[in-house]
Specification:
The chain has about 90 residues and is α+β, with helices and mostly antiparallel strands. About 35% of the residues lie in helices and about 30% in strands. The termini are far apart.
């Protein structure tokens, strides 16, 4: 079972959320740790191998390797801030 590695940005965002939303995202992260391919995620065009996953009104940006799921960003779905942050911080 892969382990979940949160970036500093993702961890900080998660800590700042109300309990209900944080729990909702934590449940999705646990499901990713069990089987990353079981959840309906999409590859991000231009940012492979990053994928995106919905968690209620939030989006999780992550990459899967053999032994871990690296969560890069967590943010609101309905604005472009998460993608702007991705552009600023993306390193191939």
């Amino acid at each position: 079972m892969p382990r979940i590695d949160l970036s500093r940005q993702a961890a900080a965002f998660l800590e700042g959320l109300p309990a209900k939303q944080a729990r909702q995202i934590a449940e999705r992260l646990q499901a990713l740790a069990i089987d990353p391919s079981a959840l309906p995620s999409e590859l991000l065009r231009g940012y492979a191998p990053l994928r995106r996953l919905r968690a209620g009104e939030y989006r999780i940006i992550f990459a899967v390797s053999d032994d871990s799921v690296e969560v890069r960003l967590i943010g609101k779905r309905n604005d472009d801030q998460i993608y702007k942050a991705l552009e600023r911080g993306w390193r191939k």
